[in-house]
Amino acid sequence: MLTREDDVDAHALHRRGWTISAIARHLGHDRKTIRAYLNGDRVAGQRRPAGPDPFEPFIGYCRERLVEDPHLWAQTLFDEVTKLGYARSYPSFTRQLRTQRLRPHCEPCSPAKGRPAAVIEHPAGEETQWDWVELPDPPQQWGWGGKAFLLVGALAHSGRWRGVLAASMDQPHLVDALDRTTRALGGLSRVWRFDRMATVCHPASGRITSSFAAVAKHYGVQVAICPPRRGNRKGVVEKANHTAAQRWWRTLPDELTPEQAQASLDDFCQLRADVRIRATADGKASVAALANAEGERLRPVPARPFPATITVQRLASAQALVAYRGNRYSVPPELAHATVTVSHRLGAHHLDIATTNGTVIAQHRLAIDGAGVMVRDHGHVHALNHAALTAFTDAAPHRRKQRIPPGPAARAAADQLRTRHQAADPGRGEGPPDQGVVIDLARYATAAKGRNTLT
Questions:
Q1: Exposed, middle or buried by CB within 10 Å (0-12, 13-18, 19+), for 429?
Q2: Using DSSP, how many helices (H) and how many strands (E) does the chain show?
Q3: Dist CA 254 CA 139 (whole Å)
Q4: At what angle do helices 74-83 and 90-100 cross, to 10 degrees?
Q5: SS3 label, residue 315
């Protein structure tokens, strides 16, 4: 077989008057091969089949079966044609299915990749796209389990995006992340676009829930729900998700707290994401320049967030302190090492700490997230000090290598046990005590004296 380069050279040399023998010697091929390519009997880059195609008799059957069932597994079809006499391997069979294009196209099952994609206009200030990202393997000291969650919001016009870390994807955490991200983006767009997340809409119908309708009314935005299996409709936030997972989360150090990780993400967005260059009708501009107040024309955010209540479970420390958003709050000393419930209503300046049965046992003024302060009630401090002093003793610790044989009370209890044991089994304990086995080596020497000679 000639390559396309050799075929071009052969035709060029033939036009210059070279004979077929000279071309064959020059290219290192047989004369009959050169003649076939010059006459058009063979095509460069296509190997002539060595024999009849073993798949050809089965083309009709495979085509009809795949018309009947376009989603039939190739392995199942291979089992059928093997019973009908197909003798080649499974990889050869699947290669022939692809080469012959026997499987019909199914539009609903086709992914977005490879489809024609329409150009979607994104006017300034029109749309903010939202999506959750599941982030695996958060640092163990966070206590969040095997996953962390990041709500990413992206302005569709400029491409500016921000995100908020959360321990859960429930609706209160969603509302809190929406409010914080919106303020970080600089304002409200006219439309919020979501996929079919259950905290926003009913996934089957796409109609928003009554609880989230109140959130949308509070912020004065319209809610747009993506059609099912149309991820490219919110491609701006999807790309932001990919960037957040691969460029930020992948290299996040283990020693950071959640609040420090959030600050790290904010710095990444300002120093890396906002400096990207975007092409516009007036030339190229950075994302930060496109996303300013004049460029996006965003509306101001309400002074207070929607009053959703965040409820989380926490374990009180030995000092009767409960950690919440980078600060520690006191509880009565009786709850040290106990599980409590922390409730915080968004927009309020205090939080409640309750027992697992719902009894509120502490209320504290909310500190700034990540400040690292210790908020303690005076009564809790006094009770904790009293409990610690009450439990304190100046007695010396017990010696570990001290000999302490059984005392009179223990010996009396042992005698009672022996008496009860003998009464239950009278046969045991009678007769002389066991003297043990005595081995006298002299007897072995006497027995061996007469065995030193052969008989």
A1: exposed
A2: 15, 14
A3: 5
A4: 110
A5: strand
Buried b (16+ CB within 10 A) or exposed e, 149-174: bbbbbbbbbbbbbbbbbbbbbebbbb
pLDDT digits (tens, 9 = 90+) for 136-160: 999 999 988 889 999 999 999 999 9
Q: Which of 114, 137, 129 is nearest to 238 (CA)?
A: 129
Residue among 195, 219, 208 nearest 308 (CA): 219
Sheet of 127-136, strands arranged across: 161-166, 147-155, 127-136, 191-194, 222-225
- Centre a 10 Å sphere on the Cβ of residue 355 and count the other Cβ atoms it contains: 15
**Contacts of 50 by beta carbon, 8 Å cutoff, 6+ apart:** none
Enumerate the β-bridge partners of residue 225.
194
Q: Rounded to an integer, what distance in angstroms lies between the CA atom of residue 372 and that of residue 326?
A: 5
Please give the full DSSP string across 14-56, using - where no structure is assigned.
Answer: HHTT--HHHHHHHHT--HHHHHHHHTTSS-TT-PPPSS--TTG
Place of tokens 């300034």: 124
What's the CA gap between 226 and 129, in Å, rounded? 10
Displacement of CA 192 from its chain's centroid (Å): 25
Residue 107 CA neighbour count, 13 Å, CB half: 1
Q: 208-265, pLDDT tens digit by residue? A: 999 999 999 999 999 999 988 766 778 899 999 999 999 999 999 999 999 999 999 9
